[in-house]
């Protein structure tokens, strides 16, 4: 029999399990050599009297107790059903007539005529309850409730909000078993996991953020609540993901409308009731249920100020486009294809358990599931053999059974998707191994699966399967492990397994992922943010970093817009300048040192990238006029290919720049300040003549720019991260990594100061940049060519392109190898950048056409600059060797 | 004994030193073992009965005399009240404990009171519990205990050899002890609480097996830290590795601090999960304990009657 086929035998085993035929293992099946004593009286097999039980519902979850005798089990030592009672959960469902409305203003909101969704338990294929499909009116009612509640909730003292959240945490703990059972029934995941993982994390998150509400004014004085937060969360950890968003949102003073996944809305509704019981004021937390269509209505509702999403990359992309240009804040926690890197010096048996945690936890339906095993070649065969043996011990079964490892897949549709991927792997010629010690014949289950004989080009290695399926590839060296780990469009999690800490740490830094676990996988805690790089999304759930998703700088008074009315269809098209017969050249002389009848020497600026001045790819020039409208110089008209070249230069410089000591980056920025100071008057004069401000004001701007260079120079070595106070015994270290090569498009206001204010934070934090100076007044930025050259700035760290801002913005936003775009321009451009960034889920920072006071220390150099300049990575380092004397 | 005795293999130092144990990862798995397997109803009763058959019912006290050794032996023969067994339908299963474990000086008394049964007598030996006596005396002690009728010898290893990485000496010593045992089975007590690291626990486990141990055992019960799950996992993984490489099955015996029925079930589950069903039977699995049996019997009483027993309703050991 092939080890790659799952063959169900129809005969039930004595313990009621139906066994999956498993591959041969090193352990032998139990020998049932019965010791029969002929003298012993023949006794009927003992049957338990249910009335003896303290809990009469405490029977096998399938409702029927398989006939079994103690004597039989004594011989076989089989496992039996170990059911958790669904009685209280059923009573709760019955309390509501198994027909739920939405939860708005602390009341059930139910309207006739709504279509209904049938919630079923996928483990048992049993009906649980009906929930409502929210329509426009339902969404509107909930949004208005939240909007109204925000007026008072956001103004409460932090301490009062802390009391409310603390109260919710306490009430959650009072109902924690009910929550666990409801979650387990609705999702099909094992009760042991909802009890020990999901609900434990829920309570921890609430307590952690109750604390943040208390200290927020002191810890984040520049920030304030955003307003109404709309949350759309996935079905894999229904309540946990919901609370990941609710807790920080409430702490920061927002009110909330949550749309749980259609498969799993029940725990959200129960939680809403618990919040009301805990005394949360009406309208602060509301739930609207429904499927994707309801989610779209939620995302599009004009009262939404912030949309927080956990789910697939596909839907994340749609939400990015839907919200583009509206002014709504957005955070996306999306898919992943996280690597598990196993070195030959790892504790292999310990690592096997890590793989179990990584890919079979929650049936593999975890965004950070370790679905790609990368194993060092010398131990590849041994490790795969160990894993295969280990998999034969996995018990797949009913969600309320406390003796199973793997529960049901959430829905048959998902199960078919998983199976489709596995079938595709078979078709590609990969080796598929499936094993477990038992699997029910009824319900929606999928056996744990290992796919070998795969490589980078296999579909199952590239795409997120979201099920209990892991692939295994071999690597030779640490460097190759990094390359393979990063050879993915995702960047959510990773684990590194080695007893060599210096190796593990270096890899942790080199892997592009928001969370890296050393010798562990899938550890979560409220004190450490969780979220992704690349197409795994942006924003973090957890920690202080998570609070930025639910706060905004106090100075930002954004007007939200109906983005449908913003036309971006012809955005970024440009027709370069042609000769004309006006008297523009006459003006040139005024900048020169000579008499009016002697023309000054023509000034045509080149671009600057890769550390040298470069001609534009297409030789077109753009006239730059002074305040009087006269042409004073020309700059290159940048195009798509200039962007391409500059991105390459920025990438080339990126690894080296990031590795430089922060001290060194600081020195270079201080040196820029020094060199700017030397040319202070000259730069101010040009600034005055081009923008029309007074010489005095121009000098002020130059001085402010020098100040800002000092400011960011100072922060080059003072914002590296922190040690997170998680529940881990060991160190959880938050590293503020550079975002990557990113693009910056500068505004026209304060052209020198805004240029400096934007590139300096980016580069001190290790990013390399493509920067487009003010379209109207680029000259003072172009003066920086010489400043850069004389300041020892390595080539490629700052790359300056000139031309039409929106034309360049288009190609930067479309470039797949840029990690972020900061756009300070028009309303249309802001929408375009956000919309286009959806393609590779790059981070964006846009101004929606609104200007800011660049001289202001918060508006021009506040917390949002730090936030935008870094990517948060949390590295988990468990420790310990002392176990006894 | 249904399996072939482990004859030992030549010392393979590279194997000894290449083993790596990550304590944090081991602890995580150990914690999971405690919550991922639960047995209820008939299964709970059956598992507890199986646990009874794996108990090395032990007394190792300075004041042991024939009186209490005899009582222990009687309890070993009839560990569970007959009416409980009848109610559970297992009266025909000849349930006894796995062995009785005593000091060498008490072996002949134990043998006497277990005569006519298949219950083996186990004796601690070799300078138990510290092992800080001369090798020749330790070997003589083994021989005397075997001569007195002990079927199993629980020796202690020389901890200084482990702490000083004197692997060859450790191997030679255990091998000599195996020889001294003759037909009696050798159970090597690692005294893991005194070995300093899980790496050392792994190394000592592997060396004892290479030297011919039939069973490796966690503790004497006298160290500060005894049979913990992380230690057990480390030793079980060594047993699994040894079985995979050599084909020989070596048994496991946790001892010290195992007192509750719930613990006993967890221990059976960890054996079943890590090594398979073969290792859940008395030839390859023992629990060294004295008060555990009382708690199991109390639990079985509840299984059979739905009521909790008073202490005086169960025979003391």
Automatic annotation (TrEMBL), chain A:
The keyword Oxidoreductase applies. It comes from Salpingoeca rosetta (strain ATCC 50818 / BSB-021). InterPro entries: Ald_DH/histidinol_DH, Ald_DH_C, Ald_DH_CS_CYS, Ald_DH_CS_GLU, Ald_DH_N, Aldehyde_DH_dom. Residues 1-47 are annotated as: Disordered. Residues 108-555, 625-849 form the Aldehyde dehydrogenase domain. Keywords: Oxidoreductase. PANTHER family: ALDEHYDE DEHYDROGENASE-RELATED. Residues 31-40 have a biased composition (Basic and acidic residues). Gene3D superfamilies: Aldehyde Dehydrogenase, Chain A, domain 1 (3.40.605.10), Aldehyde Dehydrogenase, Chain A, domain 2 (3.40.309.10). This is Retinaldehyde dehydrogenase. SUPFAM superfamilies: ALDH-like. Pfam families: Aldedh (PF00171). One of its GO terms (molecular function) is oxidoreductase activity, acting on the aldehyde or oxo group of donors, NAD or NADP as acceptor. The active site is at residue 333. Belongs to the aldehyde dehydrogenase family. Residues 1-13 have a biased composition (Polar residues). The keyword Amino-acid biosynthesis does not apply.
TrEMBL record, chain B:
Pathway: Carbohydrate degradation; 2-deoxy-D-ribose 1-phosphate degradation; D-glyceraldehyde 3-phosphate and acetaldehyde from 2-deoxy-alpha-D-ribose 1-phosphate: step 2/2. It is found in: Cytoplasmic granule; Nucleus. It is an enzyme of class 4 (lyase). GO terms for biological process: carbohydrate catabolic process; deoxyribonucleotide catabolic process; deoxyribose phosphate catabolic process. Keywords: Cytoplasm, Lyase, Nucleus, Schiff base. SMART domains: DeoC. Its EC number is 4.1.2.4. The active site is at 217 (schiff-base intermediate with acetaldehyde), 253 (proton donor/acceptor). It catalyses: 2-deoxy-D-ribose 5-phosphate = D-glyceraldehyde 3-phosphate + acetaldehyde. Gene3D superfamilies: Aldolase class I. One of its GO terms (cellular component) is cytoplasm. One of its GO terms (molecular function) is deoxyribose-phosphate aldolase activity. Pfam families: DeoC. SUPFAM superfamilies: Aldolase. InterPro entries: Aldolase_TIM, DeoC, DeoC/FbaB/LacD_aldolase. Belongs to the DeoC/FbaB aldolase family. DeoC type 2 subfamily. Interacts with YBX1. Catalyzes a reversible aldol reaction between acetaldehyde and D-glyceraldehyde 3-phosphate to generate 2-deoxy-D-ribose 5-phosphate. Participates in stress granule (SG) assembly. May allow ATP production from extracellular deoxyinosine in conditions of energy deprivation. This is Deoxyribose-phosphate aldolase. It comes from Salpingoeca rosetta (strain ATCC 50818 / BSB-021).
């Amino acid at each position: 029999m092939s080890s790659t086929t799952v063959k169900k035998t129809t005969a039930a085993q004595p313990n009621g399990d139906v066994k999956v035929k498993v591959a041969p293992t090193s352990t032998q099946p139990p020998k049932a050599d019965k010791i029969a004593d002929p003298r012993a009286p023949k006794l009927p097999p003992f049957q338990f009297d249910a009335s003896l039980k303290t809990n009469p519902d405490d029977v096998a979850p399938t409702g029927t107790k398989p006939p079994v005798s103690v004597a039989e089990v004594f011989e076989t030592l089989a496992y039996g059903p170990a059911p958790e009672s669904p009685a209280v959960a059923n009573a709760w469902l019955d309390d509501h007539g198994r027909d739920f409305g939405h939860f708005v203003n602390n009341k059930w909101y139910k309207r006739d005529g709504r279509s209904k969704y049938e919630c079923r338990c996928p483990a048992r294929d049993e009906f649980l309850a009906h929930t409502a499909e929210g329509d426009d009116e339902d969404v509107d009612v909930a949004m208005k409730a939240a909007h109204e509640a925000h007026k008072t909730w956001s103004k409460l003292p932090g301490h009062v909000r802390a009391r409310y959240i603390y109260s919710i945490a306490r009430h959650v703990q009072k109902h924690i078993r009910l929550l666990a059972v409801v979650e387990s029934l609705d999702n099909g995941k094992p009760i042991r996991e909802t009890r020990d993982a999901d609900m434990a994390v829920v309570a921890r998150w609430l307590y952690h953020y109750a604390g943040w509400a208390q200290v927020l004014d002191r810890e984040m004085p520049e920030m304030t609540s955003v307003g109404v937060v709309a949350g759309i969360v996935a079905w894999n950890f229904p309540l946990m993901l919901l609370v990941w968003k609710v807790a920080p949102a409430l702490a920061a003073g927002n009110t909330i409308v949550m749309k749980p996944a259609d498969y799993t809305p029940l725990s959200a509704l129960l939680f809403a009731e618990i919040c009301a019981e805990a005394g949360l004021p009406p309208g602060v937390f509301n739930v609207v249920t429904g499927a994707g269509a309801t989610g779209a209505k939620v995302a599009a509702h004009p009262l939404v100020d912030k949309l927080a999403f956990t789910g697939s990359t596909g839907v994340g992309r749609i939400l990015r486009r839907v919200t583009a240009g509206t002014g709504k804040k957005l955070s996306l926690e999306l898919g992943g294809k996280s690597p598990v890197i196993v070195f030959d010096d790892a504790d292999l048996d310990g690592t096997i358990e890590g793989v179990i945690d990584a890919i079979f936890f929650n049936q593999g339906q975890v965004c950070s599931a370790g679905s790609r095993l990368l194993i060092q070649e010398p131990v590849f065969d041994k490790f795969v053999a160990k894993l295969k043996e280990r998999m034969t011990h996995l018990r797949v079964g009913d969600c309320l059974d406390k003796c199973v490892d793997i529960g049901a897949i959430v829905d048959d549709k998902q199960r078919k998707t998983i199976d489709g991927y596995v079938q595709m792997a078979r078709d590609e010629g990969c080796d598929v191994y499936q094993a477990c010690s038992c699997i029910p014949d009824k319900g929606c289950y999928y056996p744990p699966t290992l796919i070998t004989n795969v490589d980078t080009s296999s579909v199952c290695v590239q795409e997120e399967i979201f099920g209990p399926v892991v692939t295994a590839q071999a690597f030779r060296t640490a460097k190759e492990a990094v390359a393979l780990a990063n050879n993915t469009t995702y960047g959510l999690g990773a684990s590194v397994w080695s007893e060599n800490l210096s190796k593990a740490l270096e890899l942790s830094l080199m892997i592009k992922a928001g969370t890296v676990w050393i010798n562990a996988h899938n550890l979560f805690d409220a004190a450490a943010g969780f979220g992704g790089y690349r197409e795994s999304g942006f924003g973090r759930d957890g920690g202080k970093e998570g609070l930025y998703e639910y706060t905004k700088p106090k100075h930002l008074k954004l007007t939200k817009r109906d983005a449908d009315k913003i036309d971006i269809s012809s955005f970024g098209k440009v027709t370069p300048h042609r000769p004309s017969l006006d008297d523009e050249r006459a003006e040139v002389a005024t900048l020169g040192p000579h008499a009016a009848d002697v023309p000054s020497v023509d000034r045509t600026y080149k671009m600057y990238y890769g550390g040298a001045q470069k001609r534009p790819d297409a030789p077109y020039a753009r006239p730059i006029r002074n305040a009087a409208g006269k042409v004073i110089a020309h700059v290159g008209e940048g195009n798509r290919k200039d962007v391409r070249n500059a991105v390459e230069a920025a990438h080339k410089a990126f690894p080296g720049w990031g590795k430089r000591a922060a001290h060194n980056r600081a020195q270079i920025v201080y040196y820029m300040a020094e060199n700017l100071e030397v040319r202070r008057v000259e730069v101010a004069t040009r600034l005055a003549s081009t923008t029309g401000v007074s010489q005095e004001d121009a000098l002020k701007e130059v001085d402010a720019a020098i100040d800002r260079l000092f400011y960011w120079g100072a922060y080059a070595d003072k914002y590296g991260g922190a040690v997170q106070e998680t529940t881990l015994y060991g160190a959880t270290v938050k590293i503020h990594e550079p975002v990557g090569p990113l693009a910056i498009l500068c505004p026209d206001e304060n052209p020198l100061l805004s240029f400096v204010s934007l590139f300096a934070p980016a580069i001190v934090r290790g990013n390399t940049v493509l920067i487009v100076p003010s379209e109207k007044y680029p000259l003072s930025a172009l003066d920086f060519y010489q400043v850069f050259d004389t300041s020892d700035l390595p080539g490629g760290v700052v790359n300056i392109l000139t031309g039409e801002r929106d034309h360049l913005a288009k190609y930067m936003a479309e470039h797949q190898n840029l990690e972020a775009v900061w756009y300070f321009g028009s309303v249309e451009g802001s929408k375009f950048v956000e919309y286009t960034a959806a393609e590779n889920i790059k981070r964006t920072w846009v101004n929606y056409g609104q200007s800011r006071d660049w001289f202001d220390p918060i508006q021009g150099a506040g917390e949002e600059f730090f936030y935008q300049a870094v990517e948060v990575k949390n590295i988990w380092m468990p420790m310990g060797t002392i176990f006894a004397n | 004994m249904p399996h072939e005795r482990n004859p030992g293999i030549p010392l393979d130092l590279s194997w000894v030193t290449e083993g790596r144990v990550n304590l944090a990862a081991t602890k995580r798995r150990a914690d999971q073992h405690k919550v991922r397997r639960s047995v209820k109803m008939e299964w709970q009763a059956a598992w507890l009965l199986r646990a009874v058959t794996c108990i090395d019912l032990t007394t190792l006290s300075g004041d042991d005399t024939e009186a209490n050794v005899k009582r222990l032996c009687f309890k070993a023969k009839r560990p569970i009240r007959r009416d409980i067994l009848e109610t559970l339908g297992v009266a025909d299963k000849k349930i006894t404990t796995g062995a009785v474990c005593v000091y060498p000086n008490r072996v002949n008394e134990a043998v006497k009171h277990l005569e006519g049964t298949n219950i083996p007598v186990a004796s601690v030996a070799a300078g138990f519990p510290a092992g800080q006596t001369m090798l020749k005396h330790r070997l003589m002690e083994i021989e005397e205990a075997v001569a007195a009728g002990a079927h199993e010898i629980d020796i202690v290893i020389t901890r200084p050899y482990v702490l000083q990485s004197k692997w060859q000496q450790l191997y030679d010593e255990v091998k000599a002890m195996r020889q001294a045992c003759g037909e009696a089975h050798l159970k090597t007590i690692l005294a893991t609480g005194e070995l300093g690291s899980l790496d050392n626990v792994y190394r000592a486990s592997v060396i004892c097996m290479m030297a011919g141990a039939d069973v490796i055992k966690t503790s004497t019960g006298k160290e500060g830290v005894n049979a913990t799950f992380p230690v057990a996992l480390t030793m079980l993984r060594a047993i699994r590795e040894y079985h995979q490489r050599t084909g020989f099955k070596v048994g496991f015996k946790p001892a010290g601090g195992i007192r509750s029925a719930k613990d006993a079930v967890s221990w059976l589950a960890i054996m079943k999960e890590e090594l398979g069903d073969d290792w859940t039977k008395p030839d390859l699995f023992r629990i060294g304990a004295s008060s555990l049996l009382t708690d199991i019997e109390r639990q079985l009483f509840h299984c059979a009657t739905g009521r909790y027993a008073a202490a005086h309703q169960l025979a003391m050991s």
